[in-house]
């Protein structure tokens, strides 16, 4: 196996095994700092040794064993005066395994642990993205539209609070699940979004490993809480979005916008499953939550055989409903995109310009303005907006798309 193959194996192992390793260590040692640092050291050791020794037959087992040894070494250094009995228990690990509870997936158990109600919602999401999703600090900061240092401080404080408050690393009971689910869904949504349109300039533009893992975990939550409308809504949203994945990036590595995608390349089975979930929630007759409305919007898009068949009035009406549930500037921006199709680009641009104070650092704000200005024939202003979007975007496929659109202005 050459160095390139080994590098790909390490990258794949990080995508597939990071959460498993961290979860195993967090459960055993009860300390997120130890779990994260030991996991990182294990992967660094793999980078150093696998090119010479070869990739082990069981990379996950090798990484977990190596990380466990790293954690034990650290604890020994920090607690040299501890009694020998504790050290022996730590080395031999003869304690019986924790009995499985309502959640029998290791990574999902860690998500529920990180989403403890003692932590603020944003902190729960950020911490879990780091510990379970394996996202880097810059990726998480971009997801929250904050500075990297700010996000690092939040995560550090969260881990310290878990340790100081003695929040247990245990499987949540069935009655605990509903209280934890909103934070869990927020985490899974952001993990999926990072895979759907990766923000890192050094990563693949679409990370199927993240979207697939988010869908897998959401299916588990759905099995645990089959009557929860928002769980069903999030799963439907993910499926309808994932169905378009293979049509979203061209053979040359450029993002393909929804109106230009080959709809025949969409995954019909995922579309059908997503539509079925949306219909089930409509039939339930209960007021929908945020994820259910987002799923309904995607159902309208994926119901149209051609972009010209899209029912834009229904899309705008659904966005009006979503704004009442989630009056965020990003929702308002997405609503303006739909308004442009219904009422024209001039009306939409006025709505977008009102968001500049809150979204000036968000690349999609500038990309949306650029497109609206182009449609209005204001080429010079459109070019400047494209330049701003390109400067802020981290996704290589999106940068390629924006660059071509800008250069077409002449």
Automatic annotation (TrEMBL):
Question: RNA polymerase sigma-70 region domain location, by residue?
Answer: 19-80
- GO MF, any single term: DNA binding
What are the entry keywords?
A: Sigma factor, Transcription, Transcription regulation
Which residues lie within the region annotated Disordered? Answer: 78-99
Ranges of residues in domain RNA polymerase sigma factor 70 region 4 type: 111-162
Q: Where is the composition biased (Basic and acidic residues)?
A: 78-94
**Gene3D superfamilies attached here?**
1.10.1740.10, Tetratricopeptide repeat domain, Winged helix-like DNA-binding domain superfamily/Winged helix DNA-binding domain
What GO terms in the biological process aspect are recorded for it? DNA-templated transcription initiation
Q: Name the domain of life this protein comes from.
A: Bacteria
InterPro entries for this protein: DUF6596, RNA_pol_sigma70_r2, RNA_pol_sigma70_r4_t2, RNA_pol_sigma_r2, RNA_pol_sigma_r3/r4-like, TPR-like_helical_dom_sf, WH-like_DNA-bd_sf
Tell me which residues make up the DUF6596 domain: 180-280
Q: Which PANTHER family does the UniProt record give?
A: BLL6612 PROTEIN (PTHR47756:SF2), BLL6612 PROTEIN-RELATED (PTHR47756)
Q: Which family does it belong to?
A: Belongs to the sigma-70 factor family. ECF subfamily.
Question: What's the protein name?
Answer: RNA polymerase ECF family sigma subunit
Native species of this protein?
Oryzihumus leptocrescens
């Amino acid at each position: 196996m050459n160095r390139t193959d080994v590098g790909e194996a390490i990258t794949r192992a990080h995508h597939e095994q990071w959460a498993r390793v961290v979860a195993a260590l967090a459960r055993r040692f009860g300390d997120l700092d130890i779990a994260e640092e030991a996991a990182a050291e294990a992967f660094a050791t793999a980078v150093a040794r696998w090119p010479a020794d070869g990739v082990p037959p069981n990379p996950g087992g090798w990484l977990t064993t190596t990380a466990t040894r790293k954690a034990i070494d650290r604890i020994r250094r920090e607690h040299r005066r501890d009694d020998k009995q504790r050290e022996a228990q730590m080395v031999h690990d003869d304690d019986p395994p924790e009995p499985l509870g309502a959640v029998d997936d290791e990574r999902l158990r860690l998500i529920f642990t990180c989403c403890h109600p003692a932590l603020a919602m944003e902190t729960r999401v950020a911490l879990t993205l780091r510990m379970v999703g394996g996202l880097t600090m810059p990726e998480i900061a971009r997801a929250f539209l904050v500075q990297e240092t700010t996000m690092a401080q939040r995560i550090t404080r969260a881990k310290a609070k878990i340790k100081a408050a003695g929040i247990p690393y245990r499987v949540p009971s069935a009655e605990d699940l509903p209280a934890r689910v909103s934070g869990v869904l927020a985490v899974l949504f952001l993990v999926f979004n990072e895979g759907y349109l990766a923000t890192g300039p050094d990563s693949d533009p679409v990370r199927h490993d993240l979207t697939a893992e988010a869908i897998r975990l959401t299916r588990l939550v759905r099995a645990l809480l089959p009557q929860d409308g928002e769980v069903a809504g999030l799963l439907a949203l993910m499926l309808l979005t994932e169905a378009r994945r293979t049509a979203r990036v061209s053979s040359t590595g450029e993002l393909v916008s929804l109106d230009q995608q080959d709809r025949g390349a969409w995954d019909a089975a995922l579309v059908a499953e997503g539509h079925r979930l949306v219909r089930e929630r409509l039939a339930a007759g209960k007021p929908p939550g945020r994820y259910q409305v987002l799923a309904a919007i995607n159902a309208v898009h994926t119901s149209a055989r051609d972009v010209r068949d899209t029912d834009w009035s229904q899309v705008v009406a659904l966005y009006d409903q979503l704004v009442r549930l989630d009056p965020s500037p990003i929702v308002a921006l997405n609503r303006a995109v739909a308004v442009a199709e219904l009422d024209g680009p001039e009306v939409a641009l006025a709505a977008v310009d009102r968001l500049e104070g809150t979204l000036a650092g968000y690349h999609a704000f500038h990309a949306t303005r650029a497109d609206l200005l182009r449609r209005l024939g204001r080429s010079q202003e459109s070019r400047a907006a494209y330049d701003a979007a390109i400067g802020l975007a981290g996704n290589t496929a999106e940068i390629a798309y924006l660059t071509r659109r800008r250069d077409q202005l002449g």
